[in-house]
Design brief:
Blueprint lengths: L1 E4 L2 E4 L3 H5 L9 E4 L2 E2 L2 H11 L7 E6 L4 H13 L4 E3 L7 H10 L6 E5 L9 H7 L3 E4 L7 H4 L2 H14 L5 E5 L3 H4 L8 E6 L6 E7 L7 E6 L2 E6 L8 H13 L4 H9 L9 E4 L5 E5 L5 H13 L4 E6 L9 H15 L2 E5 L18 E4 L2 H11 L4 E6 L2 H4 L2 H5 L7 E2 L19 E2 L29 E5 L14 H12 L5 E2 L3 E8 L2 E8 L6 H12 L6 E11 L3 E4 L8 H10 L5 E8 L7 H4 L6 H7 L2 H15 L7
Parallel strand pairs: 5-7, 5-8, 6-7, 8-9, 9-10, 10-11, 15-19, 16-17, 16-19, 17-18, 20-21, 22-25, 22-26, 26-28
Antiparallel strand pairs: 1-2, 1-3, 3-4, 11-12, 12-13, 14-15, 23-24, 24-25, 27-28
Helix pairs in contact: 2-4, 3-9, 4-5, 9-10, 11-12, 16-21, 17-18
């Protein structure tokens, strides 16, 4: 085995040990075993380095919730008197743990590492490499539910930390969580329990956390009682606080010293972190991850909070065991019970429009893109507002809403998939990503009252049929343009003539005694909503007069279905329409383009022309789709979904 650092190659037989690998930190490690220094190599080198570290105490932190806060609190607490490090942010998978171990020096007293339980077996290799002697377990929740299917499965994986501790070590366990407390039975080390229950050795009593006040509690340890005033927000962080203090006590720190240390530590970035703006608006950033199990805690915080207005901003939700549409709607209904305004951002946002409360439609808004959400939020917020950002940073980048207030963001990419927050990104001021789509369009859902006197107005009994598709000729014959094919057939059947305008192709006529207007928006599919909204304002039609005709990947190829309302189902064109009008009250005729049993790249498939077999299967759906549309026109919104 050899390790090349700079111009020097070291072999395993004593020279690697002599080097100590500490000198390698800060240098570019060029190769290991003849390979490039990849993520796997960090693990291999860390395994060599870890046995050489006799002095530092290694501490593992595990659990579904609150790991990062517990780790940061503990690092801050111990650093007041000792030297040590923790893993950076929430970088907690195996090669990142390897990098953390390689940052540890022999002079250090401690190293705190949070451990991931993403899937069964995920903790095995990190634990073998880390070899912790102290372990904290916070809470067992629903994170990574899809990988385990039960809390018991998650607890079994997390419990490996406790079971791995040496007899001379210490486990610090949450007595309020039955899944965590059961780990005591498999622990070979000393156990310290914490929580709010009477059986906990370290207890929190007299808890208060009503905003604008921060989390405070009385710590009870044996006969000692110490009041703790933290800088943290919300009572659901109590396990993180007590877990860190439990390790401090195991370390030999007095309870009062632990309390003072925790009191000096600010909230970690993106974990219930308050950010005050110069104009008196306060944001609470809980935008690193929005697992379903953490959202109720945010609701409890906002419900108790004191503020002039309360505003929820909710992005991509993760870790739920039912359908997305069901969970998003449930969250939307609950949010509206608490907040003055609720805003959803992201691909699933339009699915919550069905949760709008009659008479309070303005209180629930949806935006597919964070840039539009930022413009809207920053236009309506005022002094005294409390805005909670709850999202998944990798997908949503909700921090941009705050950065946009001062112009400190020009990048609006939604596909960078970076875990780091945008304020840490060197590219944040490089213009890129989506333009503002809704900025020049009214999003109230109301149609214009001042129509131009050009005879273009649609009467109140008229019906508007919108065929969705991309306007460029190169997309003709693709699945995404099946909506165009249906309205083209309708125009031919009714002998209507297409008129070309800057915004759309429009054909007018009548059917079943009602005025009929066929529309194909002349823009990219994802921008359909903006164009249609502008037409609605100039022509005076409303959502309940419209029928959308479009392709559907979830419907078998050639099948035709009708719906009276609902979410976008992942269709970007439909999502843009629902967002522009802020309502889901559009009737739809969906033409199936799904390919059962075939693994597809959806983005590529819908923009590629049908092959001969698919074309033959979908062609009969065109006249059937036309018949469905005409039936909706005839029934004037009374048809039942098929």
């Amino acid at each position: 085995m050899r390790l090349t650092i700079g111009r020097t190659t070291y072999t395993r037989g004593g020279e690697v040990a002599k080097l100590g690998l500490a000198n390698a930190i800060g240098y570019r490690v060029r190769s290991l075993l003849g390979e490039d220094f990849t993520d796997r190599c960090f693990v291999n080198v860390a395994r060599l380095w870890r046995p050489m570290l006799k002095k530092p105490v290694f501490i593992g932190v595990a659990g579904s919730l609150g790991k990062t806060t517990a780790k940061e609190l503990l690092v801050g607490l111990l650093s007041a008197k000792w030297q040590g490090i923790g893993n950076r942010g929430s970088f907690n998978i195996v090669h990142q743990i390897g990098k953390t171990i390689l940052r540890v020096r022999r002079k250090h007293d401690f190293c705190v590492v949070e451990l991931s339980e993403d899937a069964p077996g995920q903790m095995d290799e990190p634990l073998a490499m880390l070899r912790p002697s102290i372990g904290i377990v916070t809470v067992i929740g629903n994170d990574h539910w899809s990988a385990f299917d039960s809390r018991e499965g998650i607890a079994k994986e997390v419990g490996k930390l406790v079971a791995s501790l040496p007899a001379t070590g210490t486990a610090v366990l949450n007595a309020d969580d039955e899944h965590v407390l059961r780990m005591k039975a498999t622990c070979p080390a000393k156990v310290i329990t914490y929580g709010t229950s009477q059986g906990a050795e370290l207890r929190a009593e007299d808890i208060s956390s009503t905003w604008p006040n921060r989390l405070a509690m009385t710590l009870v340890w044996g006969k000692e009682r110490v009041r703790l005033q933290t800088q943290l927000c919300a009572s659901h962080l109590i396990p993180s606080v007590l877990g860190a203090i439990g390790v401090g006590l195991a370390w030999g720190m007095p309870l009062a010293e632990c309390a003072q240390g925790i009191a000096n530590i600010a909230p970690y970035d993106g974990r219930m972190q308050p950010v005050a703006t110069s104009d008196g608006v306060t944001f609470i950033r809980d935008d690193f991850k929005a697992s379903l199990g953490t959202i109720d805690a945010c609701f409890q915080f906002m419900k108790a909070a004191q503020a002039k207005r309360k505003i929820f901003v909710i992005g991509t939700i993760s870790d739920y065991d039912s359908s997305a549409s069901v969970e998003y709607v449930r969250v939307a209904k609950r949010a509206q019970e608490i907040a003055d305004i609720t805003i959803f951002v992201g691909a699933w946002a339009p699915s919550v429009l069905k949760a709008r409360k009659p008479g309070r439609e303005h209180a629930l808004r949806v935006f597919s893109h964070v840039r539009d959400a930022a413009e809207y939020i920053n236009s309506i917020t005022r002094e005294g507002d409390l805005v909670l950002l709850k999202g998944s940073n990798k997908q949503d980048h909700l921090l941009r809403i705050i950065l946009a207030r001062t112009g400190d963001i020009a990048c609006w990419r939604e596909d960078c998939e970076r875990y780091s927050f945008c304020n840490e990104c060197a590219d944040r001021n490089k213009p890129s990503g989506f333009p503002i789509l809704m900025g020049n369009a009214t999003i109230s859902g109301a149609t214009s009252q001042a129509l131009p006197p050009d005879g273009n107005a649609i009467d109140s009994d008229g019906q508007v049929i919108i065929g969705l598709g991309n306007f460029e000729s190169k997309y003709a014959g693709t699945p995404h343009n099946i909506g165009h094919e249906v309205v083209n057939r309708m125009a031919a059947s009714l002998a209507l003539v297409w008129e070309t305008t800057p915004e759309a192709w429009i054909a007018r006529g009548s059917s079943h005694g009602r005025g009929l207007c066929l529309i194909k928006i002349r823009t990219a599919m994802n921008l359909t909503g903006v164009g249609l909204k502008r037409l609605s304002e100039s022509m005076g039609f409303a959502p309940d007069q419209c029928v959308l005709v479009f392709d559907d990947l979830d419907t078998p190829l050639g099948a035709v279905r009708t719906r009276m309302n609902g979410g976008a189902g992942g269709h970007r064109g439909v999502a843009s329409i629902l967002e522009a009008f802020q309502t889901d009250e559009f009737r739809r005729v969906k033409i199936g383009v799904g390919q059962s049993g075939v693994k597809l790249d959806p983005a590529k498939y819908v923009l590629t022309a049908f092959d001969a077999a698919s074309r033959a299967a979908v062609d009969p759906a065109i006249p059937i789709g036309e018949a469905h549309v005409l039936e909706l026109v005839k029934r004037r919104g009374t048809a039942k979904p098929q």
